[in-house]
């Protein structure tokens, strides 16, 4: 299964292609398409242009397309539900978030990201967003001929860079209180280590907090790289596009003034002065989260386009007083192409996370706001209908005609059956059956009795034509040599069904051969089998014993 994650930024579009197998996720491709910052160029037209090129390269019928809503457009609350079934959680979300979201349930889409299971309870991140925001993404993608399979949120995509997406949500009883959790109860953590992922974009920054390897909170900081670009443009009195180019190609911050020129110091100070508002906002957010969840932050991982500034991690480490480093690329995925640089991965981290969101398993499903009336139509059925519509219509017409024909034929058959029954009953009465016996069962019984009589007569006729044992003895006597030729004493004459057993004794060996030749003429298959005699001959006589198959039918001799 392959998925395409698309991160539509202010100055570029990041695209990532991933493939999921049973045991791993592989990054197949990752690239960035720059947008022209010229104010005279409509960015909407450029975005649609890029999307149309993508759909030609990656057929939507073969890939999952994943887009994301900005974090600022989604309301996120952490909740505990006293059951584990996902469908129950989704049904309960609108009522649970009724007092927490500033929009009506009818105009919102709800979803939940499962964090942990706690015995019979489930800890989730409940999310809600107004439908117009989702529809806006769908309209933009539709203009680019891309029909998204998922419309997720930035925090869910970034979480895939840290979480183990191939595993189901874990059991976690570390924070389970003695009391049964209620649906509206907020989660309270004891002081434990946590990490921060800071995605610094050009328009805003997304702050994600992870505890026990799972996303627990996400905030939007309304500060982006555009603030740095404006500061540079103001300092050097240059156009915005030139300032952006200079920041991308030569941007840096100094951690020390030793051995640097005045121009470098001024350039660095211009950038750092615009970074202080970001540091202040992030610190306030971290203090708020630390107070709410009772956690201690260990480190801050960095991703996003602005993180490519030279020495930025070291500068932020000083500002936050926490270790700040670029997130380790491919810690959750395998890189299948050497052309994908680490720098590109840091810029396209959100796109990679969104692509991973598209290959999540049902045991740990993705966040998807495309549901209900915004759900994706099944294009397969639509294409099949367009292709086979005429055939289906013909088949439906044929079915209707066949139904009408079957109804008429059934009615006609019932009418003939009634007439046949009446005729059969009349014929039975003419044959001697009484009126109460002239029914179908009575006629069948009468026929069975007559058939038994016929079979009995036939069997009796066959028995009358069967040769008895005396008849067979008479036939044997008729073929035997005359008594003047042999001296024969028959000791046993036995007839069983069609087999005759003959035993006796003679005075000479030649007489035995004469007897065998004589009875061979009576055998049906002209074969006589010699047996061992069942008695001992006396007075030097010779014993013999034969068995043969004789005919029991035919005229008596």
Give an overview of the whole structure:
- This protein is an alpha/beta fold and 557 residues long.
- It is built from 14 helices and 19 strands.
- The strands form 4 sheets. It has a 6-stranded mixed beta sheet with strand order 8-4-1-2-3-15, sandwiched between helices. A 5-stranded mixed beta sheet has the order 12-11-10-13-14.
- Residues 175-185 have low confidence and may be disordered.
Strand order of the biggest β-sheet:
8-4-1-2-3-15
> Which value, in Å, is the CA radius of gyration?
49 Å
Oligomer: single chain
What structural category characterises the helix and strand content?
A: alpha/beta
**What profile does the largest beta sheet have?**
6 strands, mixed
Strand content: 15-25%
Q: Enumerate how many helices there are, as a single number.
A: 14
Tell me roughly what share of residues is in helical segments. Answer: 40-55%
Report, as a whole number of angstroms, the end-to-end distance: 92 Å
Shape: elongated
Mean pLDDT across the residues is: 85
Write down how many β-strands occur, each being a DSSP E stretch of 2 or more residues: 19
